[in-house]
Design goal:
By secondary structure, this protein is of the alpha/beta class. It has a single domain, classed as 3-Layer(aba) Sandwich (Rossmann fold), CATH 3.40.50.970. Helix content is 33%, strand content 16%. The chain has eleven helices and eight strands. Strands 2-1-3-4-6-5-8-7 form an eight-stranded mixed sheet, with helices on both faces. β5, α6 and β6 form a beta-alpha-beta unit. α1 crosses α6, α3 crosses α4 and α5 runs antiparallel to α8. It starts with 20 loop residues before the first helix and ends with a helix.
Amino acid sequence: MAGITDFNVKEKSQWCPGCGDFAIVGALKSALNELGIPHHQTVISSGIGCSGKLPHYLNTYGLETLHGRSLPCASGVKLANHDLNVVIVGGDGDGYGIGAGHFVHAMRRNYDMTYVVHNNQIYGLTTGQASPTTQMGMKTKTSPDGVIETPFNPIATAISGGATFVARAFAGDMLHLKEMMKQAMAHKGFALLDVFQPCVTFNKLNTYEFFTKRVYKLQEKGHDVSDRFKAIEKAFEDTTSNYERLPIGVFYNVDRPTYESQQFALKEKALVKHDLSKIDVSVAYEELM
């Protein structure tokens, strides 16, 4: 009988001891197993960075793409075979920095994909430079006098940008993280799961202790996930409270037709299952020659 061990690999992890990435890959294994999704039905697309190694540590199909380009690659996979469970993983620098343009357009198209962002508020792989989500005032290698830029708000951006499922979790609460992953993957549409993922080596501010004292679960407070404006208000609570209250859980969840469901060529069956042998391409061939 299939089980969680089907997702194990022989490769040894290269992450720092204590890294929040361990909780993310562990929760993802558990979520896939509990949802009953076979490992050969999942494709994981990653960018570059510490998070980019995740496909190496999970027995599914996977591809490690260029920096910031995991979303368009995953979109191509989904359009080629929309029967697959497509999961994208990346860091805050990878997804909210160089990949921000792809982030915006994947959301508004509402591809049926799950985007898990390892948000450690620092560039970890390149040894501690400020990222788009680094708190103002924090001193890093690229901001020795403190960050002076307003942090990027991924939750508010996702809600206003077209994502139909927007949630956040904390790597220090693995059971809740697993539940958020299960809900995100079960959702039909573009799902963002932003994860507070402490970098134990280069971020000495946003530690496990920092988050444990401040996070609280939205669903325990009766938050209405269908209220877009209330969700955006909650998305800004971290900065308006000076990072004293950090909501986690589902911010926003609505139904909207996915990009794939509106494509005529995909309504009957997945693109890869179409018989292309009888298609006459001679006219197109002659035009191009």
